[in-house]
């Protein structure tokens, strides 16, 4: 004996003896100094020989422990399919264990690496995955393995067909495993608190292996597409989570199956992530949460005796305090009524309102508030019109009021609270007229118009019927093109007679410097123009959005996620 069993054969007498030995040891049979030893199935103890951090030898064979009693072969196979082809399967149902063999060691490496950072769940139960010391699984057609082999052949047949159709090495296992798409479409309603990609991953991982997530804003709502390893997990998650609140009384989940069966993720950042591809670039990484919201939430947490809700814009789920968020040990979704937060804790809204009242944070406790307080403005230059144009990038501004006695402050009323949150998250801290704006929620529910005869000096404007609202048309493409302020601007509605030099000269006249320009190849009505700074781009957008270019064309300007 060389100290390690190199394969497992099932069905022959030798295989039966080895299988009995493996089962008796509650794990793979390992020889060390000619003495058999193996770990027990207790996940709190390390697997002797196999699970030691030192001397781990990668293998195509993966050992899976702590499986639910009624687990199916297809569900076990689904754990490996996202990472490559599963070439063999050995079920040890009596011990709640299984072995799967991947087609390459690289696929096994990726799988073990992924599950070392993300605990996989099957039927809401955490399971444990590690390399096996066995280098190969050898099975035959004995009755006790016939079912496993049949399941493996069925899945591989679908996998091969899907790969041929999609032209990709990552299979779509939805149809074969659950008859449902493994991709869920998630809408978060009543978005009082920011919901990050990491928060979604933490919630949905309780029901299966989450492979990919893409978050975006559409129809003025925060949405996400989330892909599981199999359709069964997606089905369980939908049944358990649809209609639940992430926090008490807010952030309600609305879940449907997507028509997509696989997601194509190009970047790993705060907006999207492919958990099977840690090598992906970050791309145009924009934070989901801005610094001010992070600071405000952190102050509330300190008042509540919590360590800090969000320590940075990238803190994710781990940054939320135990009083209003998810327990790291795991969500107990069944039995939780009205929210996913632990029972007996104050609601997020109540906690925020109490903290805000002690701090004097204007209106922070009101989930339905659509009025923003904008401060640290330049009183010599600010006008209602410039705030209407700038905040109008993120929602339909109804009214603007510059405070009569404190002209460095203004109130901006958006169409709804979601638009107000969106504008606050993107514009707080941005520089306007040489000063960094501060944007918070206001204590006011509406912006009052001046009474007849009341002195106002044109500081209050009603824009409720403005033709410049970007989001009044349902399904408008503007909903899909909401980006943070950037030095690059997207221009559209350009007439054919206007040249590159014309546009460069126009944008240079806004006390800015044009660094680059590019017409769209397929549509010359659109172009990108890059200013020398974000502040210059903000000013250019304010000055030139709706500028009359002639020929009945008014220029449309917005922030771009692209660069030239």
Gist of the model:
The protein is of the alpha+beta class and 564 residues long.
The largest pleated sheet is described as: 6 strands, antiparallel
Specify the number of helices: 13
What are the segments in which pLDDT stays under 50 over at least 5 consecutive residues? 1-54, 161-178, 285-367
User: How is the largest sheet built, in terms of strand order?
Assistant: 14-15-11-13-12-16
Helix content: 25-40%
Structural class of the secondary elements? alpha+beta
- Mean residue pLDDT: 73
Would you mind describing this structure in some detail?
- It is a single chain.
- The chain has 564 residues and is α+β, with helices and mostly antiparallel strands.
- It is built from 13 helices and 29 strands.
- A six-stranded antiparallel sheet has the order 14-15-11-13-12-16. The protein has a five-stranded antiparallel sheet with strand order 22-17-19-18-23, covered by helices on one side.
- A hairpin with a 2-residue loop joins strand 27 (548-550) and strand 28.
- Helix 8 packs across helix 9 (348-359).
- The longest helix has 24 residues, at 143-166.
- The model is unreliable at 1-54, 161-178 and 285-367 (pLDDT under 50).
Please specify the SSE layout and strand pairing:
Layout: E1 7-10, H1 13-24, E2 30-32, E3 35-37, E4 61-65, H2 73-80, E5 86-92, E6 97-102, H3 105-117, E7 121-122, E8 125-126, E9 128-131, E10 136-139, H4 143-166, H5 174-177, E11 183-189, H6 197-204, E12 210-218, E13 221-228, H7 231-241, E14 245-247, E15 250-257, E16 272-274, H8 291-303, H9 348-359, E17 371-375, H10 384-391, E18 399-402, E19 410-413, H11 417-427, E20 431-432, E21 435-436, E22 438-441, E23 460-462, E24 488-492, H12 500-508, E25 514-519, E26 527-531, H13 534-544, E27 548-550, E28 553-554, E29 556-559
Parallel strand pairs: 1-10
Antiparallel strand pairs: 2-3, 4-6, 4-9, 5-6, 7-8, 11-13, 11-15, 12-13, 12-16, 14-15, 17-19, 17-22, 18-19, 18-23, 20-21, 24-26, 24-29, 25-26, 27-28
Helix pairs in contact: 8-9, 10-13
């Amino acid at each position: 004996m060389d100290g390690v069993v190199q394969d497992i054969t099932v069905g022959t007498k030798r295989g039966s003896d080895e299988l009995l030995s493996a089962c008796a040891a509650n794990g793979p049979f390992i020889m060390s100094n000619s003495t058999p030893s193996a770990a027990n199935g207790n996940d709190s103890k390390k697997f002797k020989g196999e699970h030691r951090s030192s001397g781990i030898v990668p293998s195509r064979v993966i050992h899976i422990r702590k499986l639910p009693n009624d687990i199916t072969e297809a569900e076990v196979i689904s754990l490996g399919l996202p990472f490559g082809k599963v070439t063999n399967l050995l079920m040890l149902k009596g011990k709640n264990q299984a072995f799967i063999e991947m087609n390459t060691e690289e696929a096994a490496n990726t799988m073990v690496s992924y599950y070392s950072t993300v605990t996989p769940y099957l039927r809401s139960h955490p399971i444990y995955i590690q390399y096996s010391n066995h280098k190969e699984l050898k099975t035959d057609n004995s009755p006790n393995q016939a079912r496993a082999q049949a399941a493996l052949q069925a899945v591989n047949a679908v996998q091969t067909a899907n790969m041929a159709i999609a032209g990709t090495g990552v299979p779509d296992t939805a149809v074969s495993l659950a008859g449902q798409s493994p991709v869920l479409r998630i809408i978060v309603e009543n978005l009082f608190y920011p919901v990050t990609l990491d928060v979604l991953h933490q919630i949905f991982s309780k029901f299966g292996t989450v492979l990919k997530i893409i978050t975006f804003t559409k129809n003025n709502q925060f949405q996400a597409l989330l892909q599981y390893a199999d359709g069964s997990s997606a089905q369980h998650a939908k049944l358990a989570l649809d209609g639940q609140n992430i926090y008490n009384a807010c952030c309600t989940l609305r879940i449907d199956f997507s028509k997509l069966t696989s997601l194509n993720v190009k970047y790993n950042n705060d907006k999207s992530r492919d958990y099977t591809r840690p090598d992906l670039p970050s791309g145009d990484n924009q934070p989901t949460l801005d610094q001010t919201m992070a600071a405000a939430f952190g102050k509330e947490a300190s008042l509540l005796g919590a360590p800090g809700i969000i320590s940075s814009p990238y803190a994710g789920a781990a940054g939320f305090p135990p009083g209003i968020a998810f327990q790291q040990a795991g969500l107990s979704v069944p039995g939780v009524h009205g929210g996913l937060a632990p029972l007996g804790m104050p609601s997020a809204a109540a906690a925020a309102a109490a903290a805000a009242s002690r701090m004097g944070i204007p209106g922070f406790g009101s989930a339905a508030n659509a009025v923003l307080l904008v401060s640290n403005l330049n009183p010599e230059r600010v006008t209602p019109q410039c705030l209407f144009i700038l905040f109008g990038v993120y929602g339909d501004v109804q009214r603007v009021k510059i405070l009569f006695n404190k002209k460095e402050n203004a109130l901006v009323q958006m169409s709804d609270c979601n638009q107000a949150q969106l504008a606050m998250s993107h514009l707080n801290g941005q520089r306007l007229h040489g000063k960094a704006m501060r944007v918070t929620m206001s204590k006011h529910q509406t912006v009052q118009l001046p009474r007849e005869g009341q002195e106002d000096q044109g500081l209050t404007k009603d824009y409720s019927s403005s033709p410049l609202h970007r989001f009044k048309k349902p399904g408008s493409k503007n909903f899909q093109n909401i980006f943070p302020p950037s030095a690059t601007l997207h221009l559209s509605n350009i007439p054919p007679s206007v040249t590159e030099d014309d546009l460069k000269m126009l944008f240079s006249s806004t006390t800015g410097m044009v660094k680059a320009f590019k017409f769209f190849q397929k549509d010359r009505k659109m172009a990108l123009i890059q200013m020398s700074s974000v502040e210059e781009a903000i000013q250019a957008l304010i000055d030139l959005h709706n500028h009359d270019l002639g020929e009945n064309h008014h220029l449309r300007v917005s922030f771009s996620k692209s660069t030239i």
